[in-house]
Design brief:
Helix 4 (64-83) runs antiparallel to helix 5. The chain is 57% helix and 0% strand. It contains 12 helices and no strands. It is mainly α. The chain is globular, with a radius of gyration of 26 Å. It has one domain (5-258). The model is unreliable at 261-305 (pLDDT under 50).
Length: 305
C-alpha cells in the first residue's frame, strides 16, 4: 500500500460528491415532484422520524428552485473542498453533517426502521450513510499511522473494524428481515445474508483471509448495484446518487490490508538480517559509542593516514 492511497480514495470520494451535485442539477429536481418524492420516505417510519421528513419535504415542494439550487451547490462545494488539500478536513466534516441530515430527511434513515428495506434492491441502509462513514474513515492523518489499511488510520484499527462489522452485519439482518415472508427468493436472501455475515467477520482475520473478505464485499456490492439496484437508476432523470454499490466498493478499498513488510519503509538497508549476520557488514559510524577506540576506525581515518 502506498502512502498516498488514502489521498487517492479521497479524490474518488470527491468525484462521487461531484456526481451527486450533477444529478441534483437535473431538471426534475427543480419541480414540486422532487419534494413529493422526498415525502415518500416518511412512509413506514415512526412518527418521530416521519414528522420532520414531511415538514422538510413540504418546504422543498413549495420552493423547489431555491431549495434544490442550494442542495446542488452545497454538494458541489463539498466535492471541491475534499479535492483541495487545504480544505479537505473542513469539507469532510461538512460532508458528514450533510450526509446525516440527508439520511434522515431525504432517505428516511434508509428505511431501516420500516421492516421492508432491502440492501439488494433498495440499497439499505442508504447511500448517504456510506458517505458519512467514508468521511470518518478517510480522515487525513490519525493516531494509528502504522495501520495496515487506510480506514484504520484515523481512529485505530479496532474501531474501524467494528464499523465494518456493524455495517455488513446490519445489511445481513435487513436482508433477512425484508425476506421474512415465505417466497421463492427466500433461500437466495438467506444465502446473501450469510455472505454479508462472512464479509462482516472476515475483516478480523489474518491478512490473506481479510483480503478475501474485502474481495467478496466488492463482488457483492457490484452485483447488487448492477442487478438489484439497476445501476442506481442513474439514467432515469430522478436519481440523486449512484446508490450504495459504488460507495461500498470505495469503502472496501479503504479496508484493503497491506502486507506486513510494506509498512516497514523506514528500515535501513544495513539493518536487514542478511547483513547483520556478518560482523564486518556494518562499520562503526562517527558518533557510535566507542568508535574512537575502534582499531578499524583509527586505521581508516583520514587524520591518521
Amino acid at each position: 500500500m502506498t502512502p498516498d492511497h488514502g489521498a487517492r480514495l479521497r479524490l474518488v470520494l470527491a468525484a462521487a460528491w461531484l456526481l451527486d451535485a450533477a444529478l441534483q442539477y437535473q431538471p426534475f429536481m427543480f419541480t414540486r415532484a422532487f419534494g413529493q418524492s422526498l415525502a415518500e420516505s416518511a412512509q413506514g417510519n415512526p412518527g418521530v422520524v416521519s414528522g420532520p421528513i414531511t415538514w422538510s419535504a413540504g418546504i422543498v415542494a413549495q420552493h423547489p428552485v431555491v431549495t434544490n439550487a442550494a442542495f446542488a451547490t452545497i454538494q458541489l462545494i463539498i466535492a471541491l473542498g475534499i479535492a483541495w488539500r487545504p480544505t479537505v478536513k473542513l469539507a469532510l466534516a461538512a460532508s458528514l453533517a450533510w450526509s446525516l441530515a440527508v439520511w434522515w430527511l431525504g432517505e428516511g434513515l434508509g428505511g431501516v426502521l420500516t421492516g421492508s428495506a432491502s440492501p439488494w434492491n433498495d440499497g439499505a441502509p442508504g447511500a448517504v450513510i456510506i458517505y458519512a462513514l467514508l468521511a470518518v474513515l478517510l480522515w487525513p492523518g490519525g493516531r494509528d499511522a502504522s495501520a495496515s489499511f487506510v480506514a484504520g488510520r484515523p481512529f485505530g484499527r479496532l474501531p474501524a473494524r467494528l464499523l465494518w462489522l456493524t455495517l455488513w452485519a446490519g445489511m445481513a439482518f435487513l436482508t433477512l428481515q425484508s425476506a421474512s415472508m415465505p417466497s421463492p427468493g427466500q433461500q437466495a436472501s438467506a444465502f446473501l445474508a450469510l455472505v454479508f455475515d462472512l464479509v462482516a467477520v472476515g475483516i478480523f482475520l489474518p491478512v490473506p483471509y481479510a483480503r478475501v473478505a474485502v474481495i467478496v464485499a466488492v463482488i457483492a456490492a457490484t452485483a447488487s448495484w448492477a442487478i438489484g439496484q439497476d445501476f442506481g437508476a442513474l439514467f432515469t432523470g430522478s436519481a440523486t446518487d449512484p446508490n450504495t454499490g459504488p460507495l461500498l466498493v470505495v469503502l472496501a478499498a479503504a479496508y484493503w490490508p497491506a502486507r506486513a513488510g510494506s509498512r516497514s519503509g523506514n528500515r535501513n538497508a544495513t539493518d536487514s538480517p542478511a547483513l547483520l549476520a556478518h560482523p564486518a557488514a556494518r562499520l562503526p559510524q562517527p558518533g557510535d559509542a566507542g568508535s574512537a577506540l575502534c582499531p578499524r576506525t583509527a586505521l581508516t581515518s583520514p587524520a591518521r593516514r
